[in-house]
Amino acid sequence: MIQKRIESIDVLRGFVVVLSVFVSALPYGGYPLFRHAEWYGLTITDFIFPAFLTLFGVGLAIANFKGVNWKKLMRRTFLLLLFGLLFNMIVSWSIDIHNLRFTGVLQLFAIAGLFTILLTRLVTRIPYILLLSISISTLYLFFLIGTSQTCGGLIPQADCLASFKIDRFLFTDVHLYRAGSSGFDPEGFVNMISALTNVLAGYAIGLILIRKDINKKTMTLLLIGGLFILIGCVFSQWIDFNKRIWSPSFSLVTTGMTLFLLGCLYWLIDKKNFLTKQNPVVVYLTAFGKNSLLIYFGKLILLTFVSKITLNVIGMDSTIADVLHRFVPSKVGYAFLFVLFWSVVAIIMHLNKKYVKV
Q1: Residue 314 Cα distances to 305, 311, 317, 325, angstroms
Q2: DSSP letter (8 states) at residue 274
Q3: Is the pTM above the cut of 0.90?
Q4: Of 82, 130, 140, 151, whose CB has the highest number of CB atoms within 10 Å?
Q5: Rounded-to-integer distance, Cα 247 and Cα 253, Å
Q6: Could you give the 3-state DSSP secondary structure of residue 160?
Q7: Which segments of the chain have a pLDDT < 50?
């Protein structure tokens, strides 16, 4: 029998989504910690998407604990792929299907989710699922090392990636990230496979949280999180943290960080009740967490609209973003303006128990 709803999952997911709204709306220039690393490196922004993926895995375990509804799973996979293509059209502001990017964040969710369910039908025990998660990163590390012998410094570079050749073969240049001009696709097929490390680990943790026969769950989450961080740091000695290629060190460390944070919140909220569900911060983050899909992707659509739609103001054509900048010249203030907008949306929908799911 599944226990009551685990509040800490919604709270952590909500924190990740609030952070994603802020960094996405922050205008370019300065604040390097709130930007993606150019190539190698790890910033706060780099942590957001893999954390969201890990929590996606946690949710998959809870949703499918009593068995998989295959019809619902295939419908969800199809819709995520379809919405991913529509999302790409909107953010690229083009309906030209001949140059439409086939890969993307929603597509990664669809494929990683489907593969996770298929794999966990074959590998059912929690320790083996965790081992499978680590094994995927280990095999990917060998792949990167083995295919980077001709790259500068013998490590993967933006213009020297074997994985991009696979993406080209599957999708062709014009249907990849920036039409393939960067030499890599951050949500390419090989990256989707590497991201299984995050989703599978999250799935294992989801099983731990809902199993009543497992004691000391907080300590278990902290130890597993610490183990993933340790292995990721060891792997970074060969291939450093790199979100663009979803390097093994990157996937393992971000997974570990997410699990460690979840363990801390689980202890505070679900175990000891130091933070109750009536706490204003908990309510606020839960509102974001329960509508995470809507806000996580809705924010990018909204930002696209305000940067593309023009208005005639004082006899001059200006984008909505330009108009907003005149009223809120501060970059941080501008970002918080969007946080405020989505806060109102999230709270109103939460109070009315309206949640968008696929």
Answers
A1: 21, 10, 8, 15
A2: S
A3: yes
A4: 140
A5: 10
A6: strand
A7: 1-2
